[in-house]
Each structure stands twice: as C-alpha cells, then as structure tokens.
Amino acid sequence: MRLSKSIYKRVFLSIVAILTLSSCSMMTEEEPDCNPYYKVRFRFNRNMQYAEAFSTQVGEVDLYVFDTDGKLVWKGHDEGATLTEEGYLMDLPVAPGKYDIVAWCRKRHENAAGFNLAGGDHPLSFADLRMTMDREHDGETAHSTTDLDALFHGMVSEVELPDEWGTHIVNLPLTKDTNSIRIMLVHLSGKEIKKGDFEFKITDQNGYLDHDNTILDDESIEYRPWAVHEGLAQTLPPLVPDNGDENMVERSRAAVTEIHSLVAEMTTSRLQMCRKPVLTVTRTYDRDKVIEIPIIDYFMMVKGEYYRQMEDDEFLDRQDDYSMTFFMNDDGSWYKAVVDILSWRMVLQNTDL
Q: What is the signed CA dihedral for 346, 177, 68, 218, rounded to 10 degrees?
C-alpha cells in the first residue's frame, strides 16, 4: 500500500521531534534542558600588538545589562584568578531578548587612585554608569599626584539573545582608558640635574567618562608626577687603533662624559582628539616655563609615520604607554625632543610648536 505525501510528512516531523527530545535528555549538567544559555567573552586586543591580553591586563569586571527601555535587568561581578583561566566566560542569566551591555573593568595598583561609578554599588540607569576619576584640590585647582588603576570600558548595543536552544556567546571588546606617560630631561653637557630643579604637569579635562566611554565636560585637571627619578649615565670615549698593533683598538684618552637626567612618571585618564592636553615643565628657580606643548600633536607625529591608515582616536586608544625625552641646554631650555612609542622614534627640533 502506498503512503500519501502528507503521511510521509507527519512521520518525518515525528522523527525530528523524537530526536530533539532525545538530544535534550542527554544534555550535560551545565545545560540540563533545551533552554538557551548566554555567556559573555571579554576581549582586549585593542592594543598596538593586536594581541589578546584580557587575562593578563584585567583584574576584575563589572557587567551591566539593560533592556530596550534603558532599565537595568542584571549586573554581575567577577575578579581574581578565575579571570586568568583560558577561555573565561561570564554567565549571563537573562531571558531572550534585545539588550545593551556595558562593562567597566579594572586592574588595581597598590596606593593608586581610582574611578568612582555615579550610581555606586546600585546603578539603575545609564547615567549611573558614568565614571569620575579621583582627584584632589589645591583651592580651585584639581590635580592628581598618584598612579591610576588601569580602567577598561566595553559596550555592545542592541544585542539580540535568541530564544533558541544552545549556548550563545556575546563578544565584548574592551578599550583601555588609562595612559602611562614618562618625561625625561637630559643635560648632554654633563650638567647635574636634580629633582627640585623642574616641575612637571599635564593639564587636561578628561576625568569624567560617560557609560559609552565618551569624555564628558569636566573641570581642568593637573596630572602631576607620582614618581620622579634622577638618572646618571656615562658615555665611553670612541675606539681608536692601537699604534702597537693595527688589528687592535683601544679607548681614546678623552674623558668619560657623564649624562644627568630626570624622569617624571604620570598616569592620565583617556586621551582623545576632542581634548588638547598640554605638557608644562617649569624651571623652579625662576618659574620659567621651559616646555609648554600640546602632547597629542607630538604623539600624532609618530602615528602619522607608521600608522597613516589608522584613525587618530583609535591610535590613542590602542597606545597606552608614551615616552618623551627633552635634551636641555645649559640654561635649562630645551633644543631637541625625542618621542618614543614602542620601537618607533621621532626626533624633533624646538621650533616653538
């Protein structure tokens, strides 16, 4: 007896249903039924090496999930050794739907200043996820004189979490919002340079960050060194042929030259093209500003040499470590600067930029 097409169809659908129920019955303890499961994978490869570095750079994470009405529906926290595990994922126990997901992550440093969430431990809205950098005040002047905890931000908008069986992973890319900047002053003439000879500061208005990592209007902040080091190096005289043996060389009898330097270390909040941070170095004995430059303009010179195709703000987000060396005249004024970023170097003459 021949079966009709409709009977074949009903038989096929029955077999699919049986197989589906069987597969659900064989689920692991992590997925004991046919419900969907959601997890978040944090990614930190927005750096100059394009290398995944979440496990080594981030020490704790705070995650916030908002529905389409901007209402907080879930928040989670994790920290410590679990973040260093390969393939770390954070469970996302929410119902299927569309969400905005925001993360603020940190790596705390001993005796470092930090950032404060507007809503504290109980945020309810996006406005409660604004971050304010710690600062002190000298009268009307805000300043930071300590290292800053490393701060990272991540956000994905309108993420659709499907109502389908299985594990669904949301990738959340992070951006580092703190920067280490070292300023070195060098007297090539051998003149001694001491800690008290100069004062350093970087002035910016970048200590207030919105939930989407936008820099909000803020008071002017002076970033002052959290460490200043004196340095001393020796330059050896050149090698010259030994008169006794043309295959041998010896040091000339010229005197060994000592080079004195001073290194100031500062940490700032997020750098972006919409702000114009200024580095100022003041000679203390007469209060003369021997250096006063817009540092981002100098950083962009190095970016322009090696990463012409990269957006300026992306460069500033990826790069978080800067070094600038100023070679000084005897009177304390500078005549040449060197900007070092990773293995790249830009040498600049003082043209009163």
A: -100
Instruction: Give the three-class secondary structure for 35.
Output: coil
Regarding predicted confidence, which is higher, 89 or 240? 89
CA 321/CA 165 separation, integer angstroms: 44
* CATH fold of the domain at 179-349: Immunoglobulin-like (2.60.40)
List the structure tokens of 226: 């959290």
Helix%, strand%, coil% for the chain, nearest 5: 15, 45, 40
139 or 212: which leads in pLDDT? 212
For 162-184, what is each residue's pLDDT tens digit?
999 999 999 999 999 999 999 99
The dihedral over CA atoms of 38, 39, 45, 51, expressed in degrees to the nearest 10, equals -120
Tell me what pLDDT residue 259 has. 83
User: Token match 């905890």: residue?
Assistant: 149
Side chain identity, residue 93: P
CA distances from 256 to 213, 223, 238, 243, 251 (A): 52, 37, 10, 21, 10
Structure-token pair, residue 235: 């330059």
Q: Say how many C-beta atoms besides its own lie within 10 A of residue 123's C-beta.
A: 21
CA 217/CA 209 separation, integer angstroms: 9
When the candidates are 3.50.50.60, 2.40.110.10, 3.10.129.10, 2.60.40.2100, the CATH number that belongs to 5-176 is 2.60.40.2100
Helices of type H across 124-202: none
Q: Express each pLDDT in 216-243 by its tens digit.
A: 999 999 999 999 999 887 666 666 565 6
H-type alpha helices, 183-333: 295-306, 312-318
* Single-letter amino acid, residue 96: P
